[in-house]
């Protein structure tokens, strides 16, 4: 009888131990699952934020990036053409500066656009292609003066005005910061073009370029002061 009781007692203890061990395993699994869920919850916002810029980017922000890319592409293309066709060493030096500095600016625009999920143009737009074809047909002094007035002054003036207008419309802080970084560079290019135009106009004669008569620009406005 005592042996039977002892046996029952041992079996009860074994059963209790097994139940305790099973409970511990289940508790550990639950804890691990909770930890994994918590980790997933922490990483979820990060993953969402990685795709958020492309999904939430405002239309005006996308347009600003596209315009910045188009302006840089146009200046690079025209500058390369001027390097091969310009006869004035100062015009060639200006063209080289445009190629160098706008290539650098375009790389920054492209990097930001890629991060924001915006696809940019890879070649000049229709308007700038038409201007390029017109420049291609010119040579010598006429080419030099037309290039400086068109790509140097008019196009930089348009870009400067667009950047000023965009400051009030751009919502994305990264795009706004890039536009603000580009604006003073565009101003410098515009002022350098004005100086070259003044120099070339002194020796210009005939219908192609009479001092004081610049028919290659639609307006006579100077660069708009930078907005704070």
Shape: elongated
Largest sheet, in brief, is:
none
Structural class: mainly alpha
- Gap from first CA to last CA: 99 Å
Helical residue percent band:
over 70%
Strand content: under 5%
Question: Can you walk through the features of this model?
Answer:
The protein is an all-alpha fold and 228 residues long. It has helices spanning 2-56, 59-85, 89-116, 126-136, 140-166, 173-202. α2 packs antiparallel against α3 (89-116), α2 (59-85) packs antiparallel against α5 (140-166) and α3 packs antiparallel against α6 (173-202). It starts with a helix and ends in a 26-residue tail after the last helix.
Which keywords apply here?
228 residues, mainly alpha, elongated
Give a brief description.
Helices cover 78% and strands 0% of the residues. The protein has 228 residues and is mostly helical.
């Amino acid at each position: 009888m005592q042996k039977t009781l002892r046996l029952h007692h041992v079996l009860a203890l074994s059963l209790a131990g097994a139940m305790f061990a099973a409970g511990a395993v289940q508790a550990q699994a639950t804890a691990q699952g909770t930890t994994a869920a918590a980790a997933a919850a922490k990483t979820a916002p990060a993953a969402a934020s990685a795709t958020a810029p492309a999904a939430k980017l405002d239309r005006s922000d996308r347009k600003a990036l596209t315009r910045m890319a188009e302006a840089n592409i146009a200046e690079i293309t025209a500058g390369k053409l001027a390097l091969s066709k310009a006869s004035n060493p100062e015009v060639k030096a200006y063209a080289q500066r445009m190629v160098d500095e706008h290539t650098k600016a375009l790389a920054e625009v492209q990097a930001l656009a890629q991060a924001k999920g915006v696809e940019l143009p890879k070649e000049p737009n229709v308007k700038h292609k038409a201007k390029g074809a017109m420049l291609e047909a010119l040579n010598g002094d006429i080419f030099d003066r037309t290039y400086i007035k068109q790509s140097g002054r008019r196009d930089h003036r348009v870009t400067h005005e667009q950047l000023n207008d965009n400051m009030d419309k751009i919502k994305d802080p990264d795009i706004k910061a890039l536009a603000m970084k580009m604006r003073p560079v565009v101003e410098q290019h515009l002022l350098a073009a004005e100086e070259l135009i003044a120099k070339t106009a002194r020796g210009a004669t005939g219908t192609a370029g009479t001092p004081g008569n610049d028919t290659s620009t639609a307006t006579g406005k100077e660069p708009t002061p930078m907005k704070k």
